[in-house]
Amino acid sequence: MSDNPYAPYGDTSYGGYGQQSTTPAAPSGGAAPRQPAPGPAPGAALQGFGGTPAPAAADLVKDTTTAQFPADVIQESRNQPVLVDFWAPWCGPCKQLTPILERAVAAAGGRVKLVKMNIDEHPAIAGQLGVQSIPAVFAFVGGQPVDGFMGALPESEVKAFIDRITQGQGGGQGDPLAQAMEQANQLLADGDLGGAAQVFGAVLQHETGHAGATGGLAECYLATGDAARAKALVEQFDAASDGKADDPALEAVRTKLKLAEEIAQLGDPVTLQQRIESNPDDHRARYDLALIAQARGDRQTAAGHLLEIIRRDRGFDDDAARTKLLEFFQAWGPTDPATKDARRRLSGLLFS
């Protein structure tokens, strides 16, 4: 057995979706989940926790304003990735995250820059990007937002995030938790639900209440159509954390559950399509078609309908199309191709 505490436990049955102390037991019966794809397990020892990298260099970290945002972020991101940290003086988690970001950026050795924006003093950009809670971090590359997260992540996950947006050039190789989470998320993306759940369960065995692993395990339940168990898992986690958890994986599950409830109340897609064919400005019909497309897994069509509403009438139903598109981004995840493509197109509509 690997010494890595997050590696899949070869001699332990997880009952389908990772039985462990903080989650309900998985459903029994049915087809057995296929085994994780072959490949090297995450690192062999717990390393990289609690270290203190050198302080951030002055030229790698700066504050910006609405007026300076195009130069500090849009233009500068064409030279190397730029992280934008949206924060406010009253935000406790922001005070926790900012020094972590600064240390991680300094440790990256110039591969990425950090730009901080106080949303109390400069709210416009955050509003345009749909920032609804802080701290929120967006990664800009080539003049466009390409990735991001919300909430005060652990330093190991911030480093893994930086490695991802800088194509992993150096750093992040000794962190087994980040490697295990990356492995589990890749298995989930590849459709290996059993393998993904096993790794998420192993992380939770070692670190009870890990937000990202809880969200990932709930995603496994959703992927099998077991929305009730996913909802119960998230509610159990929220109760244990007093509702203070704000993790992208958990937010994605919460959003998917909310969307599923909305979609159950929608009308006939054929009739809705006929309505927009006879009247392209029937934004309500187009909006409902976007929700139906999302329910069917057609993300490109869903985003396309909402972007078309934004193009035609930004003010429709109090900016409902943009708000719903941002919810889709949360449900799909920041690295999904549909999210990246639609976010670029949205940015073009907002900033052109």
Can you walk through the features of this model?
- α9 (248-263) packs across α11 (283-295).
- It is built from 14 helices and 5 strands.
- It has helices at 69-75, 92-107, 124-128, 155-165, 176-189, 193-206, 211-223, 227-240, 248-263, 269-278, 283-295, 299-312, 320-332, 337-351, and strands spanning 61-63, 82-87, 113-118, 136-141, 144-150.
- It has 352 residues and is of the alpha/beta class.
- The longest helix is centred in the N-terminal third of the chain and has 16 residues, at 92-107.
- A hairpin with a 2-residue loop joins β4 (136-141) and β5.
- 50% of the residues lie in helices and 8% in strands.
- It has a 5-stranded mixed beta sheet, with helices on both faces.
- The model is unreliable at 1-56 and 168-174 (pLDDT under 50).
Taking all residues together, what is the mean pLDDT? Answer: 78
Measured distance between first and last alpha carbons: 55 Å
Number of helical segments?
14
Count of DSSP strands: 5
Shape: globular
* Helix content class: 40-55%
User: Strand share of the residues?
Assistant: 5-15%
Radius of gyration: 21 Å
Strand order of the largest sheet: 1-3-2-4-5
Order of helices and strands: EHEHEHEEHHHHHHHHHHH
The main β sheet shows up as: 5 strands, mixed
Structural class: alpha/beta
Question: Which blocks of ≥5 consecutive residues have pLDDT under 50?
Answer: 1-56, 168-174
